[in-house]
């Protein structure tokens, strides 16, 4: 039996345009969900994974599979439907799963043979058996997997063309921020994989550098943090010799032992969602966690950096509290916190989130011709109507923000500081130059976007 697993591309997203900026090679990351599905698949299936971000395969010239499995974030949905259509016309059954299929079940059901909601671990074997006997159901629900059910991903099936490997050590996030899909999809309960599985899987990754895809690597409660320490100790002991980057909350900075263990285990950088420069913004999106204990963010960032770990900060633009001037404000606050790089995204109502419900009920979703408009749900386009910022206004704020933070003077200062402190200069160089290079690309795409959609914002 032959199985194709496909990660569709969205050509609008600048991060997949490798040829336009050579730094973008470092931003094409592996579709781990498909590698996990492959890990669940019995050996009598011959599996090929196609990641369209590395180039769209010539499907017509390939042998016909017995089953096609497609994954998709919301921004990939339209391309997913094109791929599904191609194979269905040839009589090959298509099953689609992942976050978009879960959040937009009815839309997806109309376009594929079978939709899988939730996590695949508990249901994939049954789907394969049903496909083998030509009895696929229209809908399956995988629910949430136990952490012991998560298999070792098939790293051997996607082992070239990427700068970074990928692994997941936990699922779920208890913080439930209003704009984020993670708590809605993976649940509020924080699930940590067995440490032995994670260590074994780390060893199987070929790349020297790895993205730990967890949404919140260390968790929030003392027992989560104790487990994170155990994991870091085990990775160091196993001498896996990887440099890895991960996403975490700011409480990472609160425990020197945790930081030292993470650094020893190979942690070279963390992404931290600061989200808003003002407490009112954090309250608006439900990220009260960042308000705890009157925290001094600059001090927290420095404590992490002292362990030779770089900090990439993420903010959102377009909150109800944001007024003209917010772009410069974010850039200056991020600079004051001392983050090594900054990633600012437009507030985007992703389906299934509380923000979606709020904006939908108030008629504030400007791009709502679905599925076509999903193409723009990349967080890099302002798809909603913002309270104090017009379309032109919010795009201007974004450009000002990036131009301020990534001015040549500031970029060189940051790189120099990372060289002086010997804090992973290569990461600082890649991060800063790739973001600086992408400002020009973003301005061009904003112009096209404005021309195409200005009437939707009135
Ligand atoms: C790593 C990651 C990335 C990587 C991409 C890696 C990749 N190629 O897949 C990068 C950094 C490039 C990225 C980019 C973006 N991301 Co992202 N990303 C993630 C993250 C943190 C982990 C994904 C992952 O590997 N999970 C681990 C695997 C094992 O889980 P999984 O993919 O969900 O797969 C399981 C199930 O979904 C299911 N399943 C999945 N596919 C299929 C297919 C079939 C056939 C079946 C049966 C089952 C099935 O089975 C799997 C095992 O249980 C998630 C958050 C999350 N927790 O998922 C956000 C997330 C998926 N990203 C998100 C977003 C918004 C984006 C961006 C649009 C914006 C941005 N700048 O972040 C871009 C767009 C990328 C694009 N190509 O369109 C949102 C998506 C929401 C939505 N409705 O689309 C998420 C959920 C984060 C969030 N805070 O809301 N992302
Ligand atoms: S802390 Fe991060 S992963 Fe958790 S709900 Fe908030 S944004 Fe999502």
Largest sheet, spatial ordering of strands:
2-1-3-4-5-6
Helix content: 25-40%
Shape: globular
Q: Would you state the CATH class of the largest domain?
A: Alpha Beta
Question: Could you walk me through the main structural features you see in this protein, from its secondary elements to its overall organization?
Answer:
49% of the residues are buried. The protein is 38% helix and 15% strand. It contains 16 helices and 14 strands. It has two domains: 2-141, Cobalamin-binding domain (Rossmann fold), CATH 3.40.50.280; 164-454, tm_1862 like domain (pyruvate-formate lyase- activating enzyme). A six-stranded parallel sheet has the order 2-1-3-4-5-6, sandwiched between helices. Strands 7-10-11-12-13-14 form a six-stranded parallel sheet. A two-stranded antiparallel ribbon has the order 8-9. Helix 15 packs antiparallel against helix 16. It starts with a strand and ends in a 5-residue tail after the last helix. It has 458 residues and is of the alpha/beta class. The radius of gyration is 22 Å and the shape is globular. The chain has helices spanning 32-40, 77-89, 99-103, 105-109, 124-132, 182-186, 195-204, 222-238, 256-264, 279-285, 297-305, 326-337, 354-361, 391-405, 408-420, 425-453; strands at 2-7, 46-51, 67-71, 94-97, 114-117, 139-141, 165-167, 170-171, 191-192, 209-212, 243-248, 267-275, 310-317, 341-346. Iron/sulfur cluster is lined by residues 173, 175-177, 180, 182-183, 215-216, 249, 273, 287.
